[in-house]
Write a structure and sequence with these properties.
The structure is a single chain. The chain is α/β, with parallel strands linked by helices and 234 residues long. The chain has one domain: Glycoside hydrolase/deacetylase (TIM Barrel, Alpha-Beta Barrel). Strands 1, 2, 3, 4, 5, 6, 7 and 8 form an 8-stranded parallel β-sheet that branches. Helix 4 runs parallel beside helix 6, helix 6 packs across helix 7 and helix 8 packs across helix 9. The longest helix has 21 residues. The chain is globular, with a radius of gyration of 16 Å. The two termini are 16 Å apart.
């Protein structure tokens, strides 16, 4: 069984200079590179893409609300046309940077509040899908955004989270709720193995406590379970 392991990268210069982001690139098979809207900048995008290319890690455009103050984790009532233009701009920018270092954007993964909003909000989901340029969309299973993308003939990647708690309905528990973020390596690894067969990609957040240890534990557990780690993007 094949499974992708992804992490959100290129969000923080301190994490880059500490070496943690670079070390994560030695563990994951896909990097969701922040496109500068909610964090990061063009130079951080470039060095992240360059390191990903050197390791054979797939590059995904991590698009989000242009909201650096709230790290893209606050709801936004941005209009549909503006949202489509903003998401398309972020994808183009990262793709240009990726190509400059010998890579390419292989898929798109919304970030934070936008990711959760388009699970159920058809208006914003359509706005995001219109910006994809046929690139695969990564998202939560049973999301309205994935249904819209599939109907438009756009490939989708079902994603699960090793380090986040779920509601009984299969949605992510809000970060404002106690226990929303999992930080015990054994529990995170066990959840990743539990997700096998139901998703194509498993995420570990790079800003979770002990992210590198968690990612290593997840990879080891998946491999022990017989999974072959490989990017889910074509």
């Amino acid at each position: 069984m094949r499974i992708d392991l992804n992490a959100d990268l290129g969000e923080s210069w301190p994490r880059w200079t500490s070496g943690e982001d670079v070390a994560l690139l030695d563990v994951v098979t896909s990097a969701n590179v922040c496109c500068g809207a909610y964090a990061g900048d063009e130079e951080l995008m470039r060095v992240t893409c360059e390191a990903a290319v050197a390791r054979g890690v797939s590059i995904g455009a991590q698009v989000g609300y242009p909201d650096r103050e709230n790290f893209g984790r606050a709801p936004s009532e941005i209009g549909s046309v503006e949202l489509t233009e903003e998401v398309a701009r972020q994808i183009r920018l990262l793709d240009e940077i990726a190509h400059s270092v010998g890579g390419r954007v292989a898929y798109v993964k919304p970030h934070g509040a936008l990711y959760n909003r388009i699970v159920d909000d058809e208006v914003q989901a359509r706005a995001v899908v219109e910006a994809l340029r046929d690139l695969p969309l990564m998202g939560l299973p049973r999301s309205v955004s994935l249904a819209i993308a599939e109907a438009a003939g756009i490939p989708v990647i079902h994603e699960g989270f090793a380090d986040r708690a779920y509601t009984p309905e299969g949605r992510l528990v809000a970060r404002t709720e106690p226990g929303a973020v999992l930080d015990d390596p054994a529990a995170v690894a066990a959840q990743a193995v539990h997700l096998l067969g139901s998703v194509a990609s498993v995420c570990v957040h790079s800003d979770s406590p002990g992210a590198l240890e968690l990612a290593r534990a997840v990879r080891a557990a998946l491999e022990t379970a017989g999974a072959e780690l490989q990017s889910a993007a074509p």
